[in-house]
Amino acid sequence: MTQLPATLTGLQQAIGRGELTARQAWQMQLDRRDAVDAQWHCLSSHTLGPKATAGETGPLAGIGLAHKDNFDTWDRRPGCGVDSGSPQPGLAPAWAIERLSRAGAGHLGALVMAEYACGATSANPNFARCINPLHPDAVVGGSSSGSAVAVASGLAYGALGTDTAGSVRIPAATCGLVGLKTTHGLIPSTGLFPLAPSLDSIGMLARTASDARQILLPLLTHPPGPVSAASKPRVRIWLPREGLHSEVEAALAPLAQSLQAQPVELEREHLYLSQLADIVLHSEVAQQQRSALLEDRLSAAVLPLALPGLVMPPAWCEAARTIRSAQLRRFCHHFLSEPDSVLMLPALPKPVPDWQAVHVGQSGFAPRELLALHRFMGFINYLGLPCLVLPIGRDSRGLPISVQCVGRPFQELGLLSLAEHLQNKRGDAGPGLPATEN
After folding, report:
1. Strand 235-237 to strand 342-346: parallel, antiparallel, or no bridges (unpaired)?
2. Chain segment 226-276, per-residue pLDDT in tens
3. Cα 189 to chain center, whole Å?
4. Which tens digits make up the pLDDT trace of 133-162?
5. Is-contact 170 358, C-beta < 8 A?
6. Can the peptide bond before residue 86 be classed as cis, meaning omega within 30 degrees of 0?
7. In the predicted model, what is the mean pLDDT of residues 365-378?
8. If you average pLDDT over residues 314-342, what whole number do you get?
9. Are residues 140 and 45 in contact, defined by beta-carbon separation less than 8 angstroms?
10. 366 phi, psi to nearest 5 deg
């Protein structure tokens, strides 16, 4: 074999057939890592120690992953988008990274992110601009921007990210990937630098739903229950009445028809829950960054999230948290009433924009284009529900159009089964990957 397979599951099969060993596969991934990063700019640190090497046994033996740079790693404190991290002898890796390592996965490096995870794009003055491998002018969403670029470029077979208001799902949608935001609390956050703890969820980006499943399974603390891929979920779909681009609607309509999806109205709930999400987000970011905020040490990227929370009445956030459980029950009753229910909605209301339209300070900056990136995201974090982003078509420029699939709490495997069914039906094998040298 002269080339690595395009997907994680493909590499697992190749190793299982004896076409190459786990050690050979790992070395091939190391050999191509730096060349790929030089082109697409997704790594914030290449630092590797012996404990980061891929194992030769386990379900992920020989598989190279890379992760957003807000996770602790072996003897290294993360840079969190501010710098390239710093040595800290004796520091243990984050719980999630340790679990993946035990499953045999290797750690190819830390990935660029928006400063302190504050940003819906890859804009970060501390690093070279991440480039979208699907189109050099297209934006890379954030804040898990390096995670998306690493997977879409072929540098890594998968990547962990974090999602507080769409930070896994937005970059997945802009780069044509599967992006899974897990149920809040499903994956322990030990060793993770927080942004807004009650909204933060660990998630993953992969080229296919099958690949995402392989990354998720070692992170489950309890054995998964049986999920029948043949069972047909009860699908509902929300197509917003205002602001939905015709190309996005044209991609969603046939999907809804093929799944016999029941249309629902979500305008009022979306607006109300999004407001509650914003209250919690601003309040918790201000609490996490209080010292830096009061000492005027926060960057322009973090200030818009932290400053409102500093002056916000504490009772607002307390009230938003107090009613969250009731809002979750109400939402599930109306839109996710059956155990296998799925609610579909657009990932982005418009086609993927150019980066200059959404990076503040550029001549073509358009605030509405930036706001559109996270318009349909934050309310799902407030509810703590699992949500999967999946590409379902292409716009007139050939860039991906994606759908969000929301499930009941802890129904990640059901969402992945539905996504696998849809990808197999379409014959999708992930984004168009650039050719790389091995």
Report:
1. parallel
2. 665 445 789 999 999 999 999 999 999 999 999 999 999 999 999 999 999
3. 15
4. 999 999 999 999 999 999 999 999 999 999
5. no
6. no
7. 97
8. 97
9. no
10. -130, 105
Closest CA to 159 of 268, 326, 273, 43: 43
What single letter denotes the amino acid at residue 22?
A: A
The catalytic residue positions are: 68, 143, 167
Q: How many residues does the chain have?
A: 438
Tell me the DSSP string of 182-194: PPTTSS--TTB--
Query: Which residues does 230 contact at the CB level (< 8 Å), separation at least 6?
Result: none
pLDDT band at 46 (very low <50, low <70, confident <90, very high): confident
The residue-averaged pLDDT of 153-178 equals 98
Between CA 403 and CA 347 the distance in angstroms is: 5
- Give yes or no for residue 296 having a pLDDT over 90: no
Q: How is residue 425 written in tokens?
A: 């039906």
pLDDT at residue 294 in the model? 84
Return the half-sphere exposure (C-beta side, CA atoms, 13 A cut-off) of residue 424: 11
Report which of 415, 422, 128 is spatially closest to residue 256, judged by C-alpha positions: 422
| Residue whose C-alpha is closest to residue 141's, from 384, 352, 386, 418 | 352
For residue 79, give the nearest of 126, 140, 141, 30 by alpha carbon: 126
How far from chain centre, in Å, is Cα 208?
13
DSSP conformation letters of 365-400: --HHHHHHHTTTTHHHHHHT--EEEEEEEE-TTS-E
